[in-house]
UniProtKB/TrEMBL annotation:
Ranges in a coiled coil: none
Pfam families: Cys_Met_Meta_PP
Modified residue annotations for N6-(pyridoxal phosphate)lysine: 207
Annotated segments matching region Disordered: 1-24
Lyase recorded as keyword: yes
Name listed for the protein in its UniProt record: Cystathionine beta-lyase
Cofactors required: pyridoxal 5'-phosphate
One Gene Ontology molecular-function label: cysteine-S-conjugate beta-lyase activity
Gene: metC
Recorded family membership: Belongs to the trans-sulfuration enzymes family.
InterPro entries on file: Cys/Met-Metab_PyrdxlP-dep_enz (IPR000277), Cys_b_lyase_bac (IPR006233), PyrdxlP-dep_Trfase (IPR015424), PyrdxlP-dep_Trfase_major (IPR015421), PyrdxlP-dep_Trfase_small (IPR015422)
GO process annotations (BP): L-cysteine catabolic process to pyruvate; transsulfuration
Length: 392
C-alpha cells in the first residue's frame, strides 16, 4: 500500500503469499549448491553474480526476503544480510576503507567496533581516530581529504549520548566520506538514518529484530546502488552469510517488532522513573529524559525509545554490588539485549574511551527492560536496592 505506516510495513514486507501457494510466510530455503541447466546459464551467472541466485553463500530467496523487508523499513536502495551485527559492522568498514585512509569513529561506539578498527584496520594501514559523540558540526575540524568513513552510533553504547546525525553527515559529505551508523538501539522502526543524510545503516538484528535471544543476525542498509554494490562485494569476499533458519527468525521477529517495542519502551520509562527516585542513583542515562546528553536531538530526530538504558549510582564497593545483583529473580545478568527478557549488567565506559574522558566515579549499570510486567520488574529492583543498602 502506498504511504503505509511502519507498523503496516512490518506485517507485509518481504513476503508474497500469492507466489507461495497462498501460504502467509515465505519458505525457508536450505541451500549450498544451485544447479544451472545449461553451460550458457552457468556462464551468465558469472557475468552478473548478484543478479541471480547462484550459490548459497551469496544469498537465497530467504535472504532476499529479509533484506527486502529491512530495506523497505529503512527507505534504503537495498540491504545486505550478515551472520551477526559485528559482522555487519566489519563488512561495512571493510567495504569503504583501504590503506592510507582516515576513519572517524564516535567515542561512544560499541566496544567490539573499536576492537575491529584498532586491531584489524590499523594494522592494515588505516588511520583510526575517535571523536566526542556530542561534537555535531564541529566534526568539520577533524575531517581530512582522505577521511573515507565517519562512523556514528546514536544513542551511544553504555552512555546513550544522542548525536547530531544530520549535522555530522552534512559535514562529512564535504570531503566525500561515507557516513555509517550503528542503528541497533532505535531499530528501523524508530529512526530512519538514510533520511537524515546517512549512507549506510547497520543493525545487530540479534537484538530487537530477532527479539527472542535465540539467533545471531546482522544487516546493512545502503542508500544507493553504488554503496550497496560495495557492501555486497565486501560481504561476498569475506564470505559472510547467516543460516536460513536464523534469517527466518529475523523475518518473523519483524512481524511483532512494533508491539514488542511499545512494551519495551513503556517499561523502560517506568523503570527509569522509579530508578531516578532512588537515593543511590545519581544519573539515569536514557535519551527520553531531559538530562541525557543530546535529549533535544533525540526529540527532534527519533522521538521514541527502546528498552535499553543505563544508570549511575554512587560508587558501590564490589561486595555490595554482588549482594545487589546476585539474587535478582527476574533480571538476568548477561551480554546482549533486545530479547523478551530483562537484563542488567555493570558497565565501565571509562575503560574504553580515548577521545573523551568518562570521569564519573560512580558505578554504572546497564538495564534492558524486557516484556515482563513493569511493576514486577520494579519489585525485583526494589529487592536489589534493599540488599545493596543492607550491605553498605
Ligand atoms: C550487540 C551489538 C552489536 C553486535 O551485534 P551481534 O549481533 O551481537 O554481533 C553491535 N552494535 C550494538 C550497538 C550492539 O549492542
Amino acid at each position: 500500500m502506498k504511504d503505509a505506516r511502519k507498523d503496516t510495513v512490518l506485517g507485509h514486507a518481504g513476503r508474497s503469499p500469492r507466489e507461495n501457494h497462498g501460504i502467509v510466510n515465505p519458505p525457508v530455503y536450505h541451500c549450498s549448491t544451485v544447479l544451472f541447466p545449461t553451460l550458457e546459464d552457468l556462464e551468465a551467472g558469472d557475468q552478473a553474480p548478484f543478479d541471480r541466485i547462484n550459490y548459497g553463500r551469496i544469498g537465497t530467496p530467504t535472504t532476499l526476503a529479509f533484506e527486502q523487508a529491512i530495506a523497505e523499513l529503512e527507505g534504503a536502495y537495498r540491504a545486505v544480510n550478515t551472520g551477526s551485527g559485528l559482522n555487519a559492522i566489519a563488512t561495512a568498514l571493510f567495504a569503504f576503507t583501504k590503506t592510507g585512509d582516515h576513519v572517524l569513529i564516535t567515542d561512544s561506539a560499541y566496544g567490539p567496533t573499536r576492537r575491529f578498527a584498532n586491531d584489524t584496520l590499523v594494522p592494515y594501514g588505516v588511520e583510526v581516530e575517535y571523536f566526542d559523540p556530542t561534537i555535531g558540526a564541529g566534526i568539520t575540524g577533524l575531517l581530512k581529504p582522505n577521511t573515507s568513513v565517519v562512523f556514528l552510533e546514536s544513542p551511544g553504547s553504555l552512555t546513550f549520548e544522542v548525536q547530531d546525525v544530520p549535522a555530522i553527515a552534512a559535514a562529512a559529505k564535504t570531503v566525500g566520506a561515507t557516513v555509517m551508523i550503528d542503528n541497533t538501539w532505535a531499530t528501523p522502526l524508530f529512526f530512519q538514518p538514510l533520511q537524515h543524510g546517512v549512507d549506510v545503516s547497520i543493525h545487530s538484528a540479534t537484538k530487537y529484530i530477532v527479539g527472542h535471544a535465540d539467533a545471531m543476525l546482522g544487516v546493512i542498509s545502503c542508500a544507493n546502488e553504488a554503496q550497496w554494490l560495495a557492501v555486497k562485494k565486501a560481504a561476498t569476499r569475506t564470505g559472510t552469510c547467516a543460516g536460513p533458519d536464523d534469517i527466518y527468525l529475523g523475518l518473523r521477529g519483524l512481524r511483532t517488532l512494533a508491539v514488542r517495542l511499545k512494551q519495551h519502551e513503556a517499561s523502560a520509562l517506568a523503570l527509569a522513573e522509579w530508578l531516578s527516585k532512588q537515593p543511590e542513583v545519581t544519573r539515569v542515562l536514557h535519551p527520553a529524559l531531559p538530562d541525557c546528553p543530546g535529549h533535544e536531538l533525540w526529540k527532534r530526530d527519533i522521538g521514541r525509545s527502546s528498552g535499553l538504558f543505563s544508570i549511575v549510582m554512587n560508587a558501590v564497593p564490589k561486595p555490595a554490588l554482588s549482594a545487589m545483583l546476585n539474587s535478582l529473580e527476574l533480571f538476568g545478568m548477561g551480554y546482549s539485549w533486545g530479547g523478551f527478557e530483562s537484563l542488567i549488567l555493570p558497565a565501565r565506559p571509562a575503560a574504553v574511551r580515548t577521545a573523551t574522558r568518562w570521569t564519573d566515579p560512580g558505578t554504572m549499570l546497564r538495564l534492558h527492560a524486557g516484556l515482563e510486567d513493569a511493576d514486577d520488574l520494579i519489585r525485583d529492583l526494589d529487592g536489589a536496592f534493599a540488599r545493596l543498602r543492607a550491605a553498605l
